[in-house]
């Protein structure tokens, strides 16, 4: 994030189109990954408010963190 701010804001005149394309692409990949993992770890509840599913443990042996 610091690199993006320095390169794309402070040195705006020298930033090429490829720099912007790479920044947008990496931001989309980061956002998609975060949203995917967030939805997998989200708990679900029944109508009476009790926990039905606690979501997936992202640190399990075969999970996302390994």
UniProtKB/TrEMBL annotation:
Belongs to the TMEM208 family. The chain crosses the membrane at residues 17-34. It is a multi-pass membrane protein. GO terms for cellular component: endoplasmic reticulum membrane; vacuole. It is found in: Endoplasmic reticulum membrane. This is Transmembrane protein 208. May function as a negative regulator of endoplasmic reticulum-stress induced autophagy. One of its GO terms (biological process) is vacuolar protein processing. Keywords: Endoplasmic reticulum, Membrane, Transmembrane, Transmembrane helix. It comes from Piaya cayana.
């Amino acid at each position: 994030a610091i690199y993006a701010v320095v390169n794309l804001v402070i040195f705006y005149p020298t930033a090429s189109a490829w720099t912007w394309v790479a920044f947008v692409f990496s931001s989309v990949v980061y956002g998609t990954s975060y949203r995917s993992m967030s939805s997998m770890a989200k708990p679900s509840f029944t109508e009476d408010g009790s926990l039905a599913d606690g979501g997936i443990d992202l640190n399990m042996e075969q999970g996302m963190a390994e």
